[in-house]
Amino acid sequence: MSKAVQFVGSSDDGNHQLGGSYSIPQDLQNSIRSESTQDEDPDPLQRQMQSRSVQGKQDEYHRRPADANDRKRSLAPAGDESNEVVPPAKKKSRWDVGAYEIPETSREVQKQLVGRLADDLPEKYRLKFFKPSDQKHFAPLLANKPTESLSKSEKQEMSLLLLLLKIKNGDSASRKASMKMLRDKCSDYGPTLILDSILPILLDRTLEDQERHLMIKVIGRVLFKLGGEIKPYTHKVLTVISPLLIDEDPLARATGREIITTLANAAGLVAIITSVSKDIDHEDDYVRNTTSKAMAVVGKALGIANLIPFLNAVCHSRKSWRIRQSGVRIIQQIGILMGIGVLPHLAGLVECLSDSLTDAHIPLRIASANALATLAQNSYPYGIEAFNVVLESLWRGVRTHRGKILAAFLKCLGSLISLMDAEYAGYYTQEVMRIVKREFSSPDDEMKKAVLLVLQKCSRTEGVTPRYLRENVAQDFFKNFWIRRTALDRQINKMVVFTTVVLSEKIGAKFTIEHLLKPLRDEAEPFRTMAVAAVSRVVDLLGTGELDERLETRLIDAMLVAFQEQTNKDSSIFKGFGIVAAAFDKRMKPYISPIVSAILDHLRHKDAIARQHAADLCAIFIPVIKNCGELDILNKLNIVLYESLGEVYPEVLGSILGALFTAVCEMDLSIIQPPINQILPTLTPILRNRHKKVQLNSIDLIGRIAALAPESVPPKEWMRICFEMLEMLKSTNKPIRKAANDTFGLIANAIGPQDVLVTLLNNLKVQERQLRVCTAIAIGIVAKTCGPYIVLPALMNEYKTPETNVQNGVLKAMAFMFEYIGGMSQDYIYFITPLIEDALTDRDLVHRQTGANVIRHIALHCSGAGYEEAFIHMLNLLMPNVFETSTHAIVRILEGLEALSHSVGPGIFMNYIWVGLFHPAKVVRKAFWKVYNNVYVQHTDSLVPYYPLPSEDVYTVEELDILL
């Protein structure tokens, strides 16, 4: 017990004598300390300022990083003269020694508690973890009361809490079993006990996303089973689930909508409306917003027509403007959720909103205009008749309002114009354009977005002519929106670019590009990037047919300036340049020389980003240069790219390899410079680079050379590349493994499969599973490329090796091979039957599983080819494996049996199944019914002639009467 007692501030260095601590009475010491702390208290003003600060409002945990530097030990060397002189640390005195305080719990008790929470609970209940915050929710489980002393209600509570704990913290198997048991027994527990246990857990702030997801899933399952019993608890469930509708995660939002739909179907519309009656008038806007989204989900679930009377009453309520705003929001959310499905109910919903446009409260008018705009956008291009009742109010508001209200009304009117006939759309567009042009110079972001939306909608209507847009709109649009400030706002930037593209459909590519040449040469890089994005999209949409030679020259020059002046990592500039060059195609010939000079200059730039962009642009330009017939320039580019293969930055090297790949694909390899036999040996050491982009591009380049010019490289070099590429099969990146496998097939086709096959077969002996699987795939690809008659003897010979990994690898390779060669498999059925027989009778489960996979591919490809006797033999060997319990194995076995049902026919196949369907043992019946269900799905009509027809009312199974 003496070890547990510690005196705060004591030390073992002998500097503090025990007798010194009694030189002053304890009461006097405490009074002196209290007086000193009172003198150090700040004045009330400082205390108030401290409480209002952000750090003052934080708890101790979040305040810790702010002053952590003050408590950290200095790491500066003692002899550093540049540091400031640090005053010596104050020596501890007996005044600093605090009195002993008895802890709330002893160390032994704390150790026992931690041990019990960390060890006993997970072992007892098969939990993965048990957090300290779980103690308050699952406290009855920690009490360890004897079962005999518990009442019936306490036993139910303990049972429910145990199921919830296993669902929340258990492993996968216990979680699934507990979920199933809770779903089956939820009617016994009742809604009161279930919700009183789950809802506090969901409201816990320390709950992690995965745990919250599981608890919400429990609520969804429980609601479905409880049905109408959930009515009294509707408000509680909505309070917990509604915040999911505004979650950032789309999966969480979908889950929330699903649960609210289930709740609405179970509780009914009356119970839902009764429960939310207070929330739609709540002072907190957050509560009103979530309630509106929840009611929209309820409307979608129970029918909009049933909800319209409620919405009409809410939107015309005289009690509070908050109630009316909630009704307007519900209508807006209904439009978002229903999409075009809102069309049959459009008239009723618009009627609910008709009076809100002239309401006295500004937020309500804005919300009404936004709701109408949402309805109009989702009902496009129909439904203009339903909006006639609000058109006059909208038009009057557009002419009288200013600021944010005008922005909302303009957005709404623009959405309605797109629904009108050409005559009315032209009239309203000309009228509204006066207001839109007036607001072009508005500094308000919301007004800018509204103006851009109106421009997009109006310019697409038939009543607006290109001449009107050029003379009255486009000039002011480019003047006010194509400015540097717009490029800095990402959202408005994208809207301006899109609006420019939409306008260009009417005003033409030539007019648009003429006004974008100045931004292309601007000093501000974000502005240039924005202009390149707009030009590339306009050219991609409309082409370059209407551009004259002068404008063509100016555009190429401006794009080249934008590329040369780029300093950031944005890839849109060289991609846009490539789009423009591809559109000009052969018209680019006069400009090839200066562009290639700029590319070569950037390939030697000191900045790695500039070199990378130059290589990427080179890859885009190589097809254009070829179409222009400039082969000398192409060879010059190839030489520079080849000389750049010593690049140290992997991103740049990957782009250079990509450019070389494009060159090899586009050029005649007999005249390419440098020659292929010089390029390929240089790529061999690059294969050791572990960067994903470098590996993928280098493998693609090697595969292209192997496909187009295999004879230009000696076989020894190809084998060296094969050995290097074996390491690629270990890659964690699937595209790299896939490209390596394809390249093995191309190399085998180039130099013959024997040497490559020896290399791959040796690779089957390694321990790493992924490497063996990829090797098996590569062998299958080699068989497909070079013919199975070369590969199959080697595989069967390798199967003699008495090693499990090798034999499994051979079986996997055969499975992939028969999958790839398709109908050619029928020539080798009798050849490989003994091998499959050995695999299916092996003690190793993986052998039988892989053998079933081989049978599946052979049986599917050779169905109806006349080899039924071989497949019946395979069926005799495979059928006993139907009782396997391993998940992976039984899936493969069932797939093999399903394939054999196609090869031997359903009649013969069902002779193996009938007896097992009515076997007295449940395990046997379960296995055979699983097979029967699969066959029934595949051969529904073909099974009709083969059903047994008992001659008497009593069906007898003869095998059951046999006496052993």
UniProtKB/TrEMBL annotation:
The keyword Cell membrane does not apply. GO terms for molecular function: mRNA binding. Residues 18-35, 47-56 have a biased composition (Polar residues). Keywords: mRNA processing, mRNA splicing, Nucleus, Repeat, Spliceosome. InterPro entries: ARM-like, ARM-type_fold, PP2A/SF3B1-like_HEAT, SF3b_su1-like. Pfam families: PPP2R1A-like_HEAT (PF22646). The keyword Lyase does not apply. Residues 57-73 have a biased composition (Basic and acidic residues). GO terms for biological process: mRNA cis splicing, via spliceosome; siRNA-mediated pericentric heterochromatin formation; spliceosomal complex assembly. Residues 750-821 form the Phosphatase PP2A regulatory subunit A/Splicing factor 3B subunit 1-like HEAT repeat domain. It comes from the Eukaryota. Belongs to the SF3B1 family. This is Phosphatase PP2A regulatory subunit A/Splicing factor 3B subunit 1-like HEAT repeat domain-containing protein.
